[in-house]
Specification:
With 274 residues, the chain is of the alpha/beta class. Helices cover 39% and strands 19% of the residues. It has 2 domains: 59 residues, Ubiquitin-associated (UBA) domain (Helicase, Ruva Protein, domain 3), CATH 1.10.8; 200 residues, Rossmann fold, CATH 3.40.50. It binds glutamine (GLN).
């Protein structure tokens, strides 16, 4: 019988999450989710609760290395909370670097009016930008029907459905120039070593981009000049070792590129202007 006492249950669960960098935090998030309260409230009132049966099922799933965000169904990104589920990449804090870059580009202006998110997934980048600039509207494009469903649901939940159009599509271009283009494409080498949590649970179509991880950048590069409006910018996520290679791809078609680092000090975002 798994423990009913919250302290014992958290300790027992955390012991099973040896693969995780944050076993105790994972256990706390799952117990808070099972109780329908925030982690902060759980920690302040730990002794007041009985562990519900639903916690045990969540612990089993986490022990199989399923991402916490799929288990709780939610992940915070920039200033918004997104619904996430298997079928979309879990939004990462690293990707907030793209929004920071956009904020820096538009500082002292009224901000972008039209925003494009290529490969929108859960809608994270587009919806974060629309939260940042309440007068903006935009388009999110994704090839995955499952992702589009989740992105539309997020736009609804955030009250942004009228400003966010989610469209099926591949890297083909939209025929409109946008003030802000956001893109977190797949960029992992197919045989890269990845945690099981990522490789076995997150969508391969959102992660992998050929032998050198650059396939999608090669396809995106020729689209960008026509997608970026005059005075606009594209903020494109890269893997931390890809700055020079992707900069060369974009400069070869006449774009101007600077590299921006994430909070870990790693190259993370190309800031691209026509
Ligand atoms: N940053 C993600 C990871 O390291 C990869 C996301 C991507 O390929 N766009 O797992």
């Amino acid at each position: 019988m798994p423990p009913r006492n919250p302290r014992a249950a958290l300790a027992a669960a955390a012991q099973r999450f040896t693969f995780s960098a944050t076993p105790r935090l994972d256990a706390e998030l799952l117990l808070a989710h099972a109780l329908g309260i925030t982690r902060e409230r759980l920690l302040l009132t730990l002794g007041d609760w009985q562990v519900p049966d639903t916690f045990n099922a969540l612990v089993e799933r986490r022990a199989a290395q399923e991402p916490i965000a799929y288990l709780t169904g939610t992940r915070a990104f920039w200033t918004i909370d997104l619904h996430v589920a298997p079928g979309v990449l879990v939004p990462r804090a690293d990707s907030e670097t793209l929004i920071e870059a956009a904020v820096a580009h538009f500082e002292g202006t009224a901000g972008p009016r039209r925003v494009l998110d290529l490969g929108t997934g859960s809608g994270a980048l587009l919806l974060a930008a629309l939260a940042q600039w309440p007068h903006a509207s935009g388009v999110g494009i994704d090839a995955s029907p499952a992702a589009l469903g989740i992105a539309r649901d997020n736009a609804e939940r955030l009250g942004m459905a009228a400003r966010a159009e989610m469209m099926a599509g591949d890297w083909t271009g939209t025929g409109e120039a946008f003030d802000l283009v956001l893109c977190n494409p797949p960029y992992i080498e197919v045989d890269a070593a990845l945690p099981a949590e990522v490789r076995e649970w997150e969508p391969a179509s959102a992660l992998f981009a050929g032998a050198d991880g650059l396939d999608d950048y090669r396809r995106l590069a020729p689209l960008l000049p026509a997608q970026i409006a005059a005075g606009g910018v594209a903020c494109v996520e890269i893997g931390s070792t890809q700055g020079a290679a992707v900069t060369a791809l974009f400069e070869a078609i006449g774009l101007r590129v600077t590299v921006r680092r994430d909070l870990a000090g790693l190259d993370r975002c190309l800031v691209v202007t026509p």
